[in-house]
Amino acid sequence: MFTEHHTVGLEATMLILLGLGLLLAAVVVGVVGVLTNGGEEHTITDGFSVFGYEVTGSTGTLFLYGIVVGAVGLLGLALLMSGARRSSRRTRTARREAKDARKEAAKAQKDRDRIAEQNSTLVSDANTARTTPATDTASTTGTAPTTGTTPSTGTTPSGTTSPTDTTSHGAHQRGARYTGEERP
After folding, report:
1. Is the distance from CB of 136 to CB of 169 less than 8 angstroms?
2. CA proximity to 149, closest of 135, 141, 159
3. Cα–Cα separations (whole angstroms), residue 4 to 7, 109, 176
4. Half-sphere exposure (CA, 13 Å, Cβ side) for 20?
5. Per-residue b or e along 79-102, where b marks 16 or more CB atoms closer than 10 Å to that residue's CB
6. What is the distance, to the nearest Å, from the Cα of residue 90 to the centroid of all Cα atoms in its chain?
7. Cβ-count burial 111-138 (b if 16+ within 10 Å, e if not)
8. Is the pTM of this model over 0.90?
9. DSSP string, the chain
10. Hey, which of 22, 75, 131, 160 has its CA 20 to 30 A from 145?
11. Mean pLDDT of each 10-residue bin along the chain, 184 residues long
12. Are 150 and 165 in contact (CB under 8 A)?
């Protein structure tokens, strides 16, 4: 019934609530520990020093110092983990983008190869078409085309010169231009 997105959201909410409960419990224990261990009857009898500073006072004060040191350490750990997570995320994103770029480059190379192959095929077909002579049925068989021309005059029944004139020997089919004049 729940989708994966809802499940992740529910888990995150539960972790936040658990974290807030633990933080509240730690604050209560810290305040009670500092306040109940103060005064003359809880004085530190054997002094000690930190970085050359002599720590004096009650056990409650010492407990408060411990809380502060713990909080600073926890803050440092949180910053360290946050930086590592951000760096990992950035690296993962860069790897994904590099992978996508490699895929796009491979696709582009495949397209270039395909186009080059088509181009070379077209060039070879064009070269083949240029070197292969066109066959003219009128000149190879020796018969005149049947397009309404009179073999003796080379004119159509209406009196105009035909582009398939037998005297042109099919030159129009081989790419020569017809000028309208009879050729000898």
Report:
1. yes
2. 159
3. 5, 38, 75
4. 6
5. eeeeeeeeeeeeeeeeeeeeeeee
6. 16
7. eeeeeeeeeeeeeeeeeeeeeeeeebeb
8. no
9. ---HHHHHHHHHHHHHHHHHHHHHHHHHHHHHHHHHT-SGGGB-SS-EEETTEEE-SBHHHHHHHHHHHHHHHHHHHHHHHHHHHHHHHHHHHHHHHHHHHHHHHHHHHHHHHHHHHHHHHHHHHHHHHHHSPPP-HHHHH-----SS--TTT-B-TTSPBPTT-GGGTTGGGGTPPP-SSPP-
10. 131
11. 68 87 89 83 79 82 87 90 87 92 95 94 87 61 52 51 49 51 52
12. no
* Length of the chain, in residues: 184
Q: Are 58 and 42 in contact (CB under 8 A)?
A: yes
> Tokens in use for 125?
């077909």
Q: How buried is residue 16: exposed, middle or buried, by Cβ count under 10 Å (0-12/13-18/19+)?
A: exposed
Single-letter residue type at 21: G
Confidence at residue 179, expressed as pLDDT on a 0 to 100 scale: 55
CA nearest 157: which of 147, 146, 148, 166? 148
C-alpha torsion sign, points 138, 144, 145, 151:
positive
